[in-house]
Amino acid sequence: MSKRSPTLADHRRGLGRRGEALAAAYFRTHEYKIVARNYRCRAGEMDLIVEQGGTLVFVEVRTRRGAATGTPEESITPTKAQRLITVAETYRQEQPGAPESWRIDLIAIEFSEQGRLLRLDHIPHAVEG
């Protein structure tokens, strides 16, 4: 059986998984409780759902290597923002005991071309619904 070469999609998935793992570690060290990872529904996916102080926080993790495709913040289009709101609302409808207070945050992560972490920024209320 031959081994296939990693594709660009494989590299992107790996980069995304690395970013999500860093984001989860960030929230754990900042005393957030991780409620769910990679929540999926018909409307889309939410990378992380965390809770702190009675507020449910839906988290989109955007990870970039190099500057060729723009910053992680720039990747949140109006269409993507609306999809994130719909996913958050769907989750809240499915979880009747969920806190009333909620928001959508962004974790923006950038790596150098060599894979060194350049920054991890937590942006609360990145998407307003």
In a few lines, what is going on in this structure?
The protein is α+β, with helices and mostly antiparallel strands.
CATH topological fold name: Trna Endonuclease, Chain: A, domain 1
User: Major sheet: order of its strands?
Assistant: 1-2-3-4-5
Low-confidence stretches: none
- The percent range for helix content is 25-40%
Q: State the shape.
A: globular
Tell me, what is the CATH class? Alpha Beta
Q: What's the total count of β strands?
A: 5
Number of domains: 1
What is the first-to-last residue Cα distance?
Answer: 50 Å
SS summary, helix count: 2
Oligomer: single chain
Radius of gyration: 15 Å
Q: In sequence order, what are the helices and strands, one letter per element? A: HEEEHEE
CATH architecture type: 3-Layer(aba) Sandwich
Portion in strands = 35-45%
> Whole-number average pLDDT?
89
Which class of secondary structure composition applies to the elements?
Answer: alpha+beta
The description of the largest β-sheet is: 5 strands, mixed
